[in-house]
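Archive record
______________

***
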Amino acid sequence: MLYDVLFLSALTASVCLCLYRIAIGPTPPDRSVAIDILGTVMVGFCVLSALKTGNDFFLDVALAWTLISFIGGLSLAKFLEGRQYHD
């Protein structure tokens, strides 16, 4: 029970710090990294929910979120680099 509260408060603090960096971030790469970390923190929330409820549906959501976040991070990095997409 104590670990649940500890992990939940750590994840909540991480969300607050990521939102601060997204809003105040001086450069677009800083904002991009904060968005990627926010996605990772949301996966942490899904895993914590799966452990708390015993429902494995949250793990499926976490896996899908991870894959979408990875693809989004790659495309955003390519965009920030200034390169074009090739067929």
